[in-house]
Amino acid sequence: QFSRYKGGRAMTSQPIRLIISDIDGTILDNQHQVDPDLKDIIPLLNQEQIPFVLASARSPLGMEPIARELGLGDNPLACYNGALVIKGDPQAYETIIEHPLDKKEIRTFLELVKAEFPSVSINLYSGKDWIADRLDKWVQIEAAITGEQPVIQNVLLPVLDVLIPIHKLLLIDEAPVIQKLHDYLQTLDFPKTAFYLSKDNYMEVTAKHVSKEQALHEIAHHYQVPLEEIMTVGDNFNDLPMLRLAGLGVAMGNAPETVKTEAKAVTKSNNEHGVAEAIKEYVLG
């Protein structure tokens, strides 16, 4: 079914003045292509001065080609699930806000992973740079997905260098190994660091308070738009906080049932122009 707006839409509801959208599984179809209908709608949003902002676990360089293809100009990009919010050219961007990892905890964490889980592929992200410990099969798969190339070097070295902020770590291995690592970490004390599984064999590591919910607050503040005048769109569990918080949280038709239940509206899937349909219905309608 398409766009059930829970509780019916009152005519007095707030107009939408800002849209924040996830990327993968949301504005990209299953072939990782940008929805052509959405490309046609962006100029209409620009005319109405309604910014369309992307928020994703991706890096600046992983988001930039999509932002360029959509014609988003220098709208902010919330990278690494909001650990780094930038605007302008991703090669020479301006940082709006950042939440780097705690160096001391990360040093301890990396030493532990290398000692106890030596097969795990460790990837470190600082701004637009991707540093990998070694060029293993996992790194090659990730490079093929994102089109980015990592610098190969011992990741403990950048952690020692207090000058560079580290925005995210990505740990990859066979699913049972990553899940065992994730369970093990629950027994340890890392008060400033958050660990979560983004796939059954991908573990993301960010500063504790990093989330798309936090990014939503920061982008709302940047544009001076109240939360009730914001529409958020997403397809997965890490999108839930921003779907709950916004005036209108829209789940994709391809989202898990739990995500759909918590959203205020449900649109078509990412293969059926879901985001474009939701904008036509709730923003331009």
What does this structure look like?
By secondary structure, this protein is of the alpha/beta class. It contains 10 helices and 14 strands. The strands form 2 sheets. Strands 5-4-3-2-1-12-13-14 form an 8-stranded mixed sheet, with helices on both faces. A hairpin with a 4-residue loop joins β3 (77-79) and β4 (84-87). α1 (36-47) runs parallel beside α10. The longest helix is centred in the middle third of the chain and has 14 residues, at 103-116. The model is unreliable at 6-12 (pLDDT under 50).
Describe this structure in a few short sentences.
The protein has 285 residues and is α/β, with parallel strands linked by helices.
Radius of gyration: 19 Å
Average pLDDT level: 91
* Coarse structural class: alpha/beta
Helix content: 25-40%
According to DSSP, the number of beta strands is 14
- Note the beta-strand portion: 15-25%
Biggest sheet record = 8 strands, mixed
SS field, number of helical segments: 10
> What is the straight-line distance between the termini?
19 Å
Please tell me what the overall shape is.
Answer: globular
| H-E order | EHEHEEEHEEHEHEHEEHEHEHEH
Poorly predicted residue ranges: 6-12
Which strand order does the major sheet show? Answer: 5-4-3-2-1-12-13-14
